[in-house]
Amino acid sequence: MKITNLGTSTQASFYVATALYKQMLHKKESKLGLATGGTMLDMYESLVTLLDKNQLDVSQVETFNLDEYIGLTAEHPASYHQYMNHILFDQYEGFDPLKCHLPNGAAEDPECEAARYESLLDERGPVDIQILGIGQNGHIGFNEPGTPFDSVTHCVDLTESTIEANSRYFDDKADVPKQAISMGLRSIMKAKRIILLAFGEQKKEAITQLATGNITPDVPATILHLHPNVEVYVDDAAMPDLS
Ligand code: GLP
C-alpha cells in the first residue's frame, strides 16, 4: 500500500476534494461513502468550493456516512448528522436529503437500526469512493481495535481513548456518548475505491502501524491491505519515518 505525503493538510484536502468532484462529474448517480472528524473539515470546504464554482448537479448523488453516536438525535449539535449538514449538505444546494444517509443514533432499537443500515448499503451499494479518517488507535469508522474483519454495520462500545480524543467536540467529556453505530470493516471493504486521510503528529503512530504491512484486528485500518484499490494521503507530520 502506497502512503503518499502531500505536504500540507490543505494540499491533501484539495487533492481528495478533487477526486470526489471528478467522481461526481463523471457519474451523476455516484455513491459516496463519507467520513466525519476534524481531518475532513478542509476537504469538505474545498469540495463545496469546487461544486459551487462549477455548479455541478448533485441531485442524483447518494451518500452513506460511516457512523453516528448512539443517543444523539439528528438535531444534536455534536451529532454526525449536524456535522454533515453544517459542512456539506447546507453549504451546497442540490443534495437530495432522501439520498443522504447516516445511521439513526436515536433509533429505539440500535441493533435493528444497524441491520437496516447494512441492508441499505447492500441494496444501494457498492459505494464508488469511500473516504476514511483514522483514529489514533488505528480505528476506521468506529471499528475499534479487536473488531472482527468480517463485521458489518453494528453497535460499538467506544474505547476510552476514542472518547478522550472526541471529547474536544463536546462541552464536557461526560457528554461524549459511550456507544455508536458504525459500518463494519466488511461493509467498508465493499467500496470500489477507498481513500484514507491522516494529518498531524498524533496520527503518525497509526500510519506507521499501517505502513508496516502487518494485517491485524489490533489495528483495524490494516484490513485495507486486503483491498485492491486504496490510497492513503498524509501531511508531513503524519508521514512515517521511512529509514
Ligand atoms: C472518529 C470517527 C472516525 C474518524 C476519527 C478521527 O472517531 N468516527 O471516522 O476518522 O474519529 O477523527 P479526527 O479526524 O477528528 O481526528
The number of distinct helices, counting runs of at least 4 residues, comes to: 7
| Shape-level CATH architecture | 3-Layer(aba) Sandwich
Number of domains: 1
- Which small-molecule species are bound to the chains here? 2-amino-2-deoxy-6-O-phosphono-alpha-D-glucopyranose
Q: What is the H/E string?
A: EHEHEEHEHEEHEHEHE
Which strand order does the major sheet show? 1-10-9-6-2-3-5
Helix coverage percent of residues?
Answer: 25-40%
Provide the low-confidence segments as ranges: none
Structural class computed from helices and strand pairing? alpha/beta
What's the number of extended β-strand segments?
10
Strand content: 15-25%
What does this molecule look like?
The protein is an alpha/beta fold and 243 residues long. The chain has a single domain (2-51, 58-199), classed as Rossmann fold (3-Layer(aba) Sandwich), CATH 3.40.50.1360. The protein contains 7 helices and 10 strands. It has helices at residues 9-26, 41-54, 80-89, 110-124, 160-166, 185-189, 204-212, and strands at residues 3-5, 31-34, 62-65, 67-69, 100-101, 129-132, 154-157, 179-182, 193-198, 230-234. The strands form 2 sheets. Strands 1-10-9-6-2-3-5 form a 7-stranded parallel beta sheet, sandwiched between helices. A 3-stranded antiparallel beta sheet has the order 4-8-7, with helices on one face. α2 (41-54) links the parallel β2 (31-34) and β3 (62-65). α1 (9-26) crosses α2 (41-54). The mean pLDDT is 96. The structure holds 2-amino-2-deoxy-6-O-phosphono-alpha-D-glucopyranose. 2-amino-2-deoxy-6-O-phosphono-alpha-D-glucopyranose binds at residues 35-39, 66-67, 133-135, 141-142, 162, 166. Residues 35-39, 66-67, 133-135, 141-142, 162, 166 line the site of 2-amino-2-deoxy-6-O-phosphono-alpha-D-glucopyranose. It catalyses: alpha-D-glucosamine 6-phosphate + H2O = beta-D-fructose 6-phosphate + NH4(+). The active site is at 67 (proton acceptor), 137 (for ring-opening step), 139 (proton acceptor), 144 (for ring-opening step). Pfam families: Glucosamine_iso.
